[in-house]
Each structure stands twice: as structure tokens, then as C-alpha cells.
Amino acid sequence: MFKATPNPPETDPQELDEAAKRAIDHYLDPKPQAKKKKPSGQLFTVVDGVDTESLLANLSETLASADAMVSDLAFDLKGSRRHVALGIQQLIELGALLANGMLDNVNTQP
């Protein structure tokens, strides 16, 4: 009978034995994995290598969002609670001004 495909290439039995041993060791005798670092309790991190301009831009946007939320909340409150919320809003606005000033400095550097 004629075969449409050529015969498979010759394989070295030693290579097959090594491959089989690697496969068996991988599934039946796994190497102990390095201990994972214990979480520090910190939920969020900043990705390494992010440039300063991106960090400052995100800080500015975050402060603007916090400002809008506290402003909305302050107008639903009465009395001393409203004064506290407006004080927090003022601190957020001050932080946003500082962040935007730093962002302007970063943008003007060559």
C-alpha cells in the first residue's frame, strides 16, 4: 500500500526517555515553589516605571472627583456637618491646586 505522507523522522530513544522523565517529574514530582510574599495589607499599588507627569495628572483627576463628591454632599447637609464637608472640600481644592502647579512645572521642563 502506498503512503501519501513520508515516514516520520528517526528519533533518538534517549531523547524520548529524557522528555518522558521531564513530563513525569513535572506532574508527579514538582519542585517546591518559592514562597509567595505575604501581602502587606496594601490593596492598591502604583505600577513601577510610570512617569511623573502621568502620576500628577491622575492625582489631579482624583482630587477633582473627590472635590465634586464632597461638594455634592455638602449641599445635602445642614449646620456643622456642612461646615466640616466644606472644610474637607477646601483642603481637596488646595491639594488640587498644588498638584496642578506641579504638573505645570513638569510640562515646562525640556
Automatic annotation (TrEMBL):
Region entry Disordered, spans: 22-41
Superkingdom as given in the UniProt entry: Bacteria
Name of the protein in its database record: DUF3077 domain-containing protein
Organism: Pseudomonas thivervalensis
